[in-house]
C-alpha cells in the first residue's frame, strides 16, 4: 500500500481507509493460512522421513531373521495376516513365503525391544534399551508369574476328582512395551495379546490361528471389543482333561485340544518372539456420535471407532492409529493449528475390574504422542463434547461431561489446570463451542435450549437464548459462526436460526451489555438439521437427518446446490470440508463418504453398525468373514482392506467358520439356527 501513487488521496476518504483496513485483515488471514499449510507440509515431511527409516529397519530385521526355522515364521506371520500381503504355499514340504505390507500404522520404529526368553540349550537374548525414550514411565511391565500356591490348588482340584495328578501350566503373556515414536505414550495401552504357543499339529495350529485372528480383529469391532483387545490372558493347560482353560478378565473360557493330539506336552513349545501390532481398523463410529470426521492438512481423515483414533490417508490407502485411550472414544476436536487433536472417552473397567476414569487426551497427530491427559477424577460417566478456543490460538479447552448436571469446565490444557467449572442443565447437551472472535464467549446447545456463557477469570455466567416469536425446537442440534460473528444454529425442526449480538441497556452504573437475539430464520431441511460446516470461502454446508440432503449455501444464506445421500448409507451425522471442492460425510450406518456435488459419493470407510460377534479366517486365502448383531455378514479382503461382499441375515449372527475347502462358510445365529 505505501507504494500506491494515489495513497494520499485515498487516505483522505474514510470509506477508503475502511477498505484498506479490510484488505489488510484479508492479507493477514491469508498469511495465517499459508503458515498453517507450511506447518502441515513440514509435518508430512517428518512423517515420510520416519517411514523411510522404518523401511530400512524392517529390511535389516528381515535379513537377520532368515536363519530362524520356517515353521515358526509361518505360524507367527499367519497370526497377523489381517492386513498383511503375502503369497502362501501349502505345507507339503514347501516353504512359506510372506511379504509383509508396511503401512503408516507401523510408523517409525526407533528400536525393537524383545523380552528375555531362555530355554534349555538356547542362548539368552539380551533386552535392548531405549535411552532416547521421552516417556520412560510408559514402559509396560510384564505380568507377574503364577505362584506355586495357585498351581498346587489346581492340582488338588484334579486329584479330588479321582484322577491322577494333572500337569497344569499357567502361562502369562507379557505386555508389549511401546517402542515407536508413532505409538501412544500411555502405559495402559500398547499391550497387544501375544500369540498362543506354537503347535506343530496342523489341526491345533488352525485353532490357535483362528483365536489369534479373533483377538487381532477385536480392535475394530463394536464397543465391547475395545476393552477386550488390551487384556492379558492367563492359560491353564490340563493334559488329563484334554482342554486349555483361558482366563480373560477373570472369566474362564475352555478350549478343547484336538483329538489327534495325544499329549499336549509333546507339542508345546516356548512362546514365539514375534508380537502383534495393530495394522488396520475396519469401521467408523457414526451411529451415536456427531461431528467426528475431519480432514487434516496432511491429507489424512481423522475419525474414531471403539478406543482407537484412526488417521486414514485415502490416497495412499494407509492408516495410522492413536492408541492412548483405555475405553471407547466419544468425541473429537481439532486444534486451530490443525496438528493437535483432543479426544474424550467414556468410563470403563480394566482387566482386574477396577474402574477407568473418563478423561480427555490432547495429542500430536504427527508423532501420535500424548501431550496432556485432562480431567481424571473430574468427569463423570464420560466426555460428551469438547472444543478448542480460537481467539487465543487454542490455549484453552472447554468440555461437557455426561453427568446428570452436564458440567461445563474450561481448561488451560498446556498447564493441565482447570480454570472454571459450572453446571449447565439436566437436559441433554449436544454441542459446545468457543466463539471464534470473542474469547470470553462459550455457547452450548441441546434439548430445548441454547446458552450463551460469558467467561471471566474463574467464573462463568449464563444467558439463555430467547426464541420469542419463533417456535422453540425440541433439540438445538449444531452450531456454526458467520464471518461477522453471528451464531448459526440448526435444530430438530429443520430450521436454521441466525443469532446476532445486540446492545441493550443494563442496570444503572454497569453500562450497556451485549445479548444474542434471533435476527433471521431459514427453513433448511425436512426433518432435523444435524450438522453445519463453515467452508474456507465463507459458504456453508448443512446436513439433514430425515431428508439425507447436503445443501450448499452462499454468503447470503441462499441455497445454491444440493445432493442427497443414498438410503443405504444412512442419515448424515458429520460433514467436513475436503480437498478442493470435495467434502466428507459421516453417516448413521457407519460409512465415511467422500463426495462432490458433480460426481456424487465414494465410500472410503465402512463397517458393522452393532456389536461384532462372529469372525472366521479363510483357510488359505487373504480373506476373513464377520457377522454381527446388525444381521450383516461381511467378507473382507485383508490385503486391500476392502469389502468383497455383504449379505443380510434374517437375524443376528453370533459365530462363523469356513469349511477346510474354503468354499463354504457356516454361520450360527441368535436363535440357534
From TrEMBL:
WD repeats lie at residues 522-554, 605-637. Its main location: cytoplasm. Residues 81-97 have a biased composition (Polar residues). It holds the Pfam family HELP. Residues 14-48 form a coiled coil. Residues 318-594 form the EML-like first beta-propeller domain. One of its GO terms (biological process) is cell division. Gene3D superfamilies: YVTN repeat-like/Quinoprotein amine dehydrogenase (2.130.10.10). Residues 111-131 have a biased composition (Basic and acidic residues). CDD domains: TD_EMAP4 (cd21950). GO terms for cellular component: microtubule; midbody; mitotic spindle. Belongs to the WD repeat EMAP family. This is EMAL4 protein. It comes from Nothoprocta pentlandii. The lineage of its organism: Eukaryota, Metazoa, Chordata, Craniata, Vertebrata. The gene is Eml4_0.
Amino acid at each position: 500500500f505505501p507504494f500506491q501513487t494515489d495513497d494520499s488521496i485515498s487516505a483522505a476518504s474514510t470509506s477508503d481507509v475502511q477498505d484498506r483496513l479490510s484488505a489488510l485483515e484479508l492479507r493477514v488471514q491469508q498469511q495465517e493460512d499459508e503458515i498453517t499449510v507450511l506447518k502441515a507440509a513440514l509435518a508430512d515431511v517428518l512423517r515420510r522421513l520416519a517411514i523411510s527409516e522404518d523401511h530400512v529397519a524392517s529390511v535389516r530385521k528381515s535379513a537377520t531373521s532368515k536363519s530362524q526355522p520356517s515353521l515358526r515364521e509361518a505360524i507367527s506371520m499367519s497370526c497377523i495376516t489381517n492386513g498383511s500381503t503375502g503369497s502362501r504355499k501349502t505345507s507339503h514340504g514347501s516353504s512359506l513365503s510372506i511379504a509383509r505390507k508396511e503401512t503408516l500404522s507401523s510408523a517409525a520404529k526407533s528400536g525393537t525391544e524383545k523380552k528375555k526368553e531362555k530355554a534349555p540349550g538356547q542362548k539368552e537374548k539380551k533386552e535392548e534399551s531405549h535411552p532416547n525414550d521421552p516417556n520412560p514411565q510408559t514402559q509396560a511391565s510384564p505380568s507377574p508369574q503364577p505362584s506355586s500356591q495357585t498351581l498346587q490348588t489346581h492340582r488338588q482340584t484334579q486329584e479330588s476328582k479321582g484322577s491322577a495328578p494333572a500337569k497344569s501350566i499357567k502361562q502369562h503373556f507379557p505386555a508389549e512395551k511401546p517402542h515407536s515414536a508413532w505409538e501412544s505414550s500411555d502405559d495402559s495401552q500398547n499391550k497387544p495379546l501375544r500369540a498362543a504357543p506354537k503347535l506343530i499339529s496342523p489341526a491345533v495350529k488352525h485353532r490357535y490361528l483362528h483365536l489369534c485372528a479373533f483377538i487381532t480383529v477385536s480392535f475394530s469391532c463394536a464397543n465391547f471389543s475395545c476393552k477386550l483387545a488390551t487384556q492379558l490372558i492367563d492359560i491353564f493347560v490340563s493334559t488329563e482333561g484334554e482342554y486349555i482353560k483361558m482366563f480373560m478378565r477373570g472369566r474362564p473360557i475352555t478350549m478343547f485340544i484336538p483329538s489327534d493330539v495325544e499329549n499336549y506336552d509333546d507339542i508345546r513349545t516356548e512362546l514365539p518372539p514375534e508380537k502383534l501390532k495393530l495394522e488396520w481398523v475396519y469401521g467408523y463410529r457414526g451411529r451415536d456420535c456427531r461431528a467426528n470426521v475431519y480432514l487434516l492438512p496432511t491429507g489424512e481423515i481423522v475419525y474414531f471407532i471403539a478406543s482407537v483414533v484412526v488417521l486414514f490417508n485415502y490416497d495412499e490407502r494407509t492408516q495410522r492409529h492413536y492408541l492412548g485411550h483405555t475405553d471407547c472414544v466419544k468425541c473429537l476436536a481439532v486444534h486451530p493449528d490443525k496438528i493437535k487433536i483432543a479426544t474424550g472417552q467414556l468410563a470403563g473397567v480394566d482387566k482386574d475390574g477396577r474402574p477407568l476414569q473418563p478423561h480427555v487426551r490432547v495429542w500430536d497427530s504427527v508423532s501420535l504422542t500424548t501431550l496432556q491427559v485432562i480431567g481424571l477424577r473430574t468427569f463423570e460417566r464420560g466426555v460428551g463434547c469438547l472444543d478448542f478456543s480460537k481467539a487465543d490460538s487454542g490455549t484453552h479447552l472447554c468440555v461437557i461431561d455426561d453427568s446428570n448436571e452436564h458440567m461445563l469446565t474450561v481448561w488451560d490444557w498446556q498447564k493441565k489446570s482447570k480454570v472454571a467449572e459450572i453446571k449447565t442443565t439436566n437436559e441433554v447437551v449436544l454441542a459446545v463451542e468457543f466463539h471464534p472472535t470473542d474469547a470470553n464467549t462459550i455457547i452450548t446447545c441441546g434439548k430445548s435450549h441454547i446458552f450463551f456463557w460469558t467467561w471471566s477469570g474463574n467464573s462463568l455466567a449464563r444467558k439463555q437464548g430467547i426464541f420469542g416469536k419463533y417456535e422453540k425446537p425440541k433439540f438445538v442440534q449444531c452450531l456454526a459462526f458467520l464471518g461477522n460473528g453471528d451464531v448459526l444454529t440448526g435444530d430438530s425442526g429443520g430450521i436454521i436460526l441466525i443469532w446476532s449480538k445486540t446492545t441493550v441497556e443494563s442496570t444503572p452504573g454497569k453500562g450497556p451489555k451485549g445479548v444474542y437475539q434471533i435476527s433471521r430464520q431459514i427453513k433448511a431441511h425436512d426433518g432435523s438439521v444435524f450438522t453445519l460446516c463453515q467452508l474456507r470461502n465463507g459458504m456453508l454446508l448443512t446436513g439433514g437427518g430425515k431428508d439425507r440432503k447436503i445443501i450448499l449455501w452462499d454468503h447470503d444464506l441462499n441455497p445454491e446446490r444440493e445432493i442427497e445421500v443414498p438410503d443405504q448409507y444412512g442419515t448424515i451425522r458429520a460433514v467436513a470440508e475436503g480437498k478442493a471442492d470435495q467434502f466428507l460425510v459421516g453417516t448413521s450406518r457407519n460409512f465415511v463418504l467422500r463426495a462432490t456435488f458433480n460426481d456424487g459419493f465414494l465410500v472410503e470407510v465402512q463397517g458393522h453398525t452393532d456389536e461384532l460377534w462372529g469372525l472366521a479366517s479363510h483357510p488359505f486365502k487373504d480373506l476373513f468373514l464377520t457377522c454381527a448383531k446388525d444381521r450383516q455378514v461381511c467378507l473382507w479382503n485383508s490385503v486391500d482392506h476392502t469389502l468383497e461382499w455383504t449379505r443380510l441375515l434374517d437375524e443376528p449372527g453370533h459365530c462363523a467358520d469356513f469349511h477346510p475347502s474354503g468354499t463354504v462358510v457356516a454361520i450360527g445365529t441368535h436363535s440357534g439356527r
